Structure formats: C-alpha cells, structure tokens
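Data deposition worksheet. Section B asks for the primary sequence of the deposited chain exactly as it was used as input, without tags or linkers unless they were present during the calculation. Section C holds the resulting structure in token form. Section D is free text for depositor observations; keep each observation to a single sentence. Incomplete worksheets are returned to the depositor.
Section A, Depositor: J.P.
Section B:
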Amino acid sequence: MAEQKKMKLNYKLTFLIGFGFMASSIAWSVYNAYVPPILDEMLSASPTVAGIAEKLPWLATLFGGTDVVGAGVVGGLIGAIMVIDNVFGVIFQPLFGKISDRTHSRLGKRRPYLLFGIPAAALFFILIPRMPYIWTLMLCVICFNLIMSLWRSPVVALMPDLTPPSLRSEGNAVINLMGGLGTLLGMGSGMIVIAIMTLFMGSKPATDAERPYVFIFTAVVMLICLLVVMLTVPLAVAGALVFMYAGGQTMNIFSQIGIIMLIGLVAKNGILIVEFANQKQESGLARGEAIEQAALQRLRPILMTSASTVLGLIPLAVATGEGAAGRVAMGVAVVGGMLVSTLLTLYIVPAMYSYISTDRHKKKA
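Section C:
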C-alpha cells in the first residue's frame, strides 16, 4: 500500500503520448469545419444532383429545405457524407482496437498503426480540397475516414498501456487536455494560415484562398504529433429523432451537425465503461464483476459529462429571434439525444458487454 501511495503519474510521458490524441482532434476539427462547404460547392454545381432534385422534389421536404438544390438534396447529401466517419468508427474502430491488442512488434502494440495511419490520413487530408470532381473528392473522404478508424483506437489505448491502473484517471485528464488543445488549434487554423499568408504576401488573401493551406497546416501538425508519439514510447440518434419529432423539428443540416457531435459524445461514454471493464478483467476479476464495477465507478464521470453538455446546450434548444431555427434544431437534437442515450448507455452497454465480450478471466485461468 505504501508503494502504491508513492506512485506518481509521469506527466511528461503522458503529455507526450497525448500528442497522438491531439493529432486526431485537430484533424476532425478542421474536417468538420471545411469539408461541408467544399461539398456544398461541388454538389450545388453538379448537374447530376440538379437532375435528381428536379425528378424527386419530395426530397427537399424530407430534408427540410425549400430550394431543392440549395437546402434540400444538397443538404441531405452533405449530412449523409459527414456521418461516414461515425459509421466507420462503429464498424472498424473496435476491430482495429482488438487487432492492436494482439499485435506484437518492436514498436509495441499501438505505434505501428500510428506510424502507418497518421501519414496516410494526412496525405488524403491534403488531397481533399484539391479534388476537381465529386467522385475523386468522395474517394479521398472515404479513404481518409477509413484510415482514421485504423489508428484512433490504438492512440486512445496508448495511455492505459503505459500508465498504472491507479493513475489512469489522472492520465485521462492530461490526454483530454491535449485533445482540447488540438480542437482549439483546429478551430484557429484558418486565422493562423491567413496570418502567415498575409505576412509573406504583404496583403490579406482572397476569400477561401487559405482553404488548401489549412489542410496542409493540419497535416503537418498531425505528422509532428506522430513524431512526438513515436519518439516517446446508435442509441443516441434514436433519442435525438424522438425529441426532434416531439419538438416539430425537421432533419436539416443543423440537426445533422448536432447528431454528428452527439454520436461522438455518446461513444466516449461507452468507451469509459468498456475500457474500465477490460482493465478490471485484466486485473483478475470475472467478466460480470468487472462490468458491474466499471459501471458503478464510471457513473459519476458519465453523468457529469452528460449534465454539462445538456445544461450548456439548453439555451440553443430554447433560442428565439432571428436565425433561431437552426440553433433550436441543433440544440434539440443534442439535448434530447444526450438525455436518452445517457440512460440507455448505463444499462445497454453493460448488458451487451456481458453478452458479447470475451471472459479474459477464464482465459487466464
């Protein structure tokens, strides 16, 4: 016990490991901010989309638009494309995470996936704003999302691999801090690139002229984060739709953005329980006891995350005045989905884990 009390988190190591999570955060921050406008421009100019809109005008009503091309079909297609990363995350992230658990190499379990995944993702990321045709753009988007799914689980697992169980909550705070810094850097990347271009050009660049360079800037940051790491060692959607229906909201681009954000928040809640249960099994507990303790000990962090999200977005859900319709749609989707998914996560995730998870305790025995 005395030795355990003397254990302290290696903040330097944990901070450096966090650069991997930072690379993921900045990539998604820029992706979510810049890809929708690119898609909007290309889809709006597409004769194929215009032809579909003319033949199927009911699609505009389905997606909450009055202009079948501008706010209807195009908005629906953008929403569908922007959900690809969540679909791939649900399908491929657990798969690659499980494969990385069984990987043994000179670089360890996780770093081979980062060594391949981050440069490949950065390459396709740079190509996204440079694609002249919609099919080449979609190819880059799909490849980028698939490769991101390859290394996201391994990068999240790096910290628990290198941190004693009693210090992992403290280490998680450091990792989340690095992720937050990555998000802030991504949000400010446009201003950073404009400032650099203005400095070298002597005048402010034209509108959207900085767009390709923002992707390059983000790719460079991702590669720097990789270098640092290598040198160191669908329940939510159902809840959102129910609340949107009850509130008279349509499925538009604003509510779709809210659902995208919601899926990420809910997935994190599930990861909190599953990862902790895996750690408990590795420490010697049986599967049932491990998931029970994980659900109890992760209850407070999940409730705190959900409560802060709901309370922070209530003003959006009850907004009034000009432009309030978009904010209300987003707020209702996130608040409603978060309320429902939080309750379901605390019951469904442990139940599914106890049903489909491997009993590692028996394997050790």
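Section D:
The CA atoms of residues 302 and 308 lie 10 Å apart.
Confidence is low (pLDDT under 50) at residues 1-5, 64-70.
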